[in-house]
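Closing statement on the flavin-adenine dinucleotide sub-project.
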Amino acid sequence: MPISGTTADAIAVGGGLAGSAFALELARNGASAMIFERMRGPHHKVCGEFLSDRAQALLHYLGINVPALGGSPVETLCLASGAARASAQLPFAAVGISRLLLDEALLQAAQRAGAKIHRATSVERLEACGGRVRVQTAGASFECRAAALASGKHNIRCLPRPDAPMVGFKMHLRPAEATRAALMDVVHLIAFTGGYLGLCMIEEGTLSMAWIVSSDVLQSVGTSWTAQSAYFARQSPFFEELTNGATPDWEKPLAVSGLPYGFMRSETIAETIYPVGDQLAVIPSFSGDGTALALASGIAAAQAVLKGEGASSFQFRMLATCKPQFRRALIIDRVIADARLRRAGIVGARLFPSMVTMLVSATRLSGLDSLITSADART
Ligand SMILES: Cc1cc2nc3c(=O)[nH]c(=O)nc-3n(C[C@H](O)[C@H](O)[C@H](O)COP(=O)(O)OP(=O)(O)OC[C@H]3O[C@@H](n4cnc5c(N)ncnc54)[C@H](O)[C@@H]3O)c2cc1C
């Protein structure tokens, strides 16, 4: 395959949050950067669309005006399992905003900073060769000094992640007028046998619903929206109440399979290939901090490239910072999966709501700021 004449200092494989943050940070610091994104234009992604305070601060660092995107504020967390429920104040001001808007805003900011965006371009292969990186698409091959593996939930051939039994979904809904008040300012986390779901208002009165479910439960329930929403309503009177009269925006929910919760890529692919976002590590989705990790790792990888730090040292630093929060998040994930434990958890949360606020803080990826060297200078 011929080597393309166009090349750059660095290439991001994937134009999601991690890839765009990588290219944007490089471009605004004088390096040439390219992004290869397999989709033709703005697109929806499986995500609860809940933005933590850390994610908002990182976006601000990247020059994105989050309030101007018009999201919906979130102040309270409501937990439910069966007929039991409990509410607690979030320890920070969060916001609900669609990934359709957010990813596109970041991609365009990267372009304005000078990064070249190649849309509808799928990367087929990524490999180190002679101290450089070769990036192969369907029609051409490119060489660069460094690359970010930022393909998120999709694996690139030869660079697999472990297989896992959980499947993720997303649906957008128009809630009925009568349920709007109960949905505003709140992120609802509802557990059911085989998984859990999140409900969060985003821009323009849209209700974003994301859920994960084990593949064996999915097999018996069915994959259609009608079958799954009927199952959730049987499992949770609270879900039925909140979504009563809501109309889905799409015929089918978006889906992504094989979510490897707890995955941490500690092995180095090559010193010039930096895994970022979900290709670096996958925190359970209830924590609502996957986007913060994607942004922080994209920025930190760009800074590593700029200062000549290799991928092995970058990965070691990133994973060491995230490990304590990952451990706590995985324990909570196990509690959610066990009906008895989660019932006890909700009783505890009703008695001591401040305990929930504390647990939310405990699963925050709090060390991310220290990984970004020039954050203070720009905020
Ligand atoms: C059910 C669920 C709910 C979640 N809810 C939340 C939440 O509420 N809040 C939160 O903070 N996090 C949440 N997360 C986590 C969050 O969605 C991810 O951590 C985040 O999207 C990771 O960003 P990324 O840039 O690594 O990957 P992605 O956002 O997946 O972006 C990857 C990009 O790469 C492109 N791509 C893929 N393969 C190729 C290829 N071969 N060539 C070129 N381009 C390619 C894709 O099209 C995509 O645009 C949730 C996750 C799940 C599964």
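The mean pLDDT is 92. With this model delivered, the sub-project is considered complete and its resources will be redirected to Aim 3.
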